[in-house]
C-alpha cells in the first residue's frame, strides 16, 4: 500500500462513441469508471481525485459512495490539459509525487498500479515512472515527481501532458506491465465489440 495521491482522468466527451459513454460501459460487472475508481482506491491510502465534466453528469452517480473526490472541470471541452490543470492544482500541499491514470484503459489492474507505484524512488534522479506495454511502448499509469507539478498549471489544448513528459527528458523510467494493459483504450462501439469478442 502506498500513500501516493492518484488522479483519475474522466472528463472526456466520448465523442467517438456515437451517443454512448465509454466510461459507463460495463467491465468486470460494473461501469468502467467505477471499476477504475475502486482500483485506485484499493492501491493507495492517499486521496483519489477524479476529474469529471461539470455537473450534472451521469459519471458522478457512478462513483457515488466511494471514498474519492470529484474534481469538476468546467472547460473539459478544451481537451485533456484542462483536466490536468484542475487535477494537479487540487493535490494536497507538499505532495511529493502523484500518479495519473486514464479512466478509459479497461485492462489496467490493481497490480499494474501497484507495480508502477513500487518503482517510485524519490531520492533518485528520475522524475517520471511510467507504465509500458510488454513490447516497451510508454503508456499509463504515470507517476510525476512534484518538481514537474508547476508545468501542469500552464498547459492548454489536448496534449495530454506530453509537454510535461518532454521536460523530464531522459529522467523517465519505464515500468513494464503485462500485455497491452498500459495503452489499450476503446474509443468506438466497434472497438468495444471487438475487445469483448476477444475476451
UniProtKB/TrEMBL annotation:
It holds the Pfam family NTP_transf_3. GO terms for molecular function: transferase activity. Residues 7-168 form the MobA-like NTP transferase domain. CDD domains: GT_2_like_f. Keywords: Magnesium, Transferase. The keyword Magnesium applies. InterPro entries: MobA-like_NTP_Trfase, Nucleotide-diphossugar_trans. Gene3D superfamilies: Spore Coat Polysaccharide Biosynthesis Protein SpsA, Chain A. It comes from the Bacteria. This is NTP transferase domain-containing protein.
